[in-house]
Amino acid sequence: MVDKAQQAKAELLRSLHGNGVLVLPNAWDAGSAAVIAAAGARAIATTSGGVAWSMGRTDGHGLSRDEMADQVRRIARAVDVPVTADIEGGYGPTPQDVARTVEAVIEAGAVGVNIEDSGAPGGGLFDAQAQSERLSAARAAADQAGLPGLMINVRTDVFLFGIGEPAGRLDDVIARAGRYAQAGADSLFVPGLTDLETLSLLVKSTPLPVNAMAGPGAPTVAEFEAVGVRRVSLGTAVAQAAYALAQRAAVETLTAGTYGTLDDAIDYGTLNGFFAR
Fold this sequence. Notes:
By secondary structure, this protein is an alpha/beta fold. It has one domain: Phosphoenolpyruvate-binding domains (TIM Barrel), CATH 3.20.20. Helices cover 47% and strands 10% of the residues. Strands 1-8-7-6-5-4-3-2 form an 8-stranded parallel beta sheet. Helix 6 packs parallel to helix 7 (169-183). The longest helix has 19 residues, at 237-255. It starts with a helix and ends with a helix.
């Protein structure tokens, strides 16, 4: 059963969506989570892609439920701030699958989840009714686990995967958001949408706080905040940058025999100290 500390973290995570913008540079393991928390992050969000790569798998349900939950447990133990877990499509198509996944990550220490509406049998997105049933199951599982404050961030991939005619995508997202809110979602994540004018219309048309995914070429956090976006996450971008740095350091050493890429590395003692808990 959930203890008071975990309940308090759930309340804190929820409160962070109340005003301003919550910035989430996504983590993929305990080390990245500790570094991001030390940088001042008020919460840690995991990235399914980063977690999968760190375990030698592909993104997109390349991990099992238990493998993802185990990594969430390591991350939650490494930091004192709230952790919200990317559970992809719930590791199965049925509401029961989603419920089991929510139970697993709550037991691992998460106080929020990110669940997407892609991954339906046969490909594509779950329709709004099916996804609503899955969200209702997630909410019921959280209640049963003793964490009614679990923050459910529902991701819709209408823009990310270019579902339907471009002119109708915003209306589709707005309609889905209304259904998802009724089913128990607390916030709305729309990766693939960075156009500020469209985001402004979405913010005004849904009761849910809107989460945008940022990265190179995207508007700044301040620009997102100015149109009403309440949460900005980086998805796999930080993990990609970290792996790029590892590759550059390896190439430099293997070719030039020098070590300049490593000049700005975190001091050994500082990094080791993050885990002296």
